[in-house]
Amino acid sequence: MAARTINGIAGLKELVGEHLGYSDYVEITQAQVNLFAEATGDHQWIHVDVERANAGPFGGPIAHGYLTLSLGPQLGPQIYQVEGISMGVNYGTQKVRFPSPVPVGSKLRLGATLLDVTDVAEGAQITMEFVFEVDGASKPSCVAQVIFRYYA
Prior knowledge:
The chain is of the alpha+beta class. It has one domain: Thiol Ester Dehydrase, Chain A, CATH 3.10.129.10. Helix content is about 25%, strand content about 40%.
């Protein structure tokens, strides 16, 4: 899938309120979950103890919510890329929710909607709604407003 190219801050302003598209699906693996547990120190059994998780409330191990959110930098560029800027940085998140689990072995994708563009010194601050969806699930797995700053 080819990413949508956005021409600078002016191009961003033209797209406020628009759903920009979806990433490809990626499979969530137990190895990935284990690596995230090692990196963060979050070794809760619902993530890393496969045998116990199989008998647990989700019927198997699930990805950490923050692992799901952290896939934004991998999946976002599949949806959109901003040209004509010198730099873009993550600025933060707000209203992060994890409505349903991401089972290990499931396929996950990202959808992005541009909610807002606000001028800041030498650039713009944008707010994106990121919605992470497991293939076949009735509810999204993560919904977050993610804030970026782009500098001209």
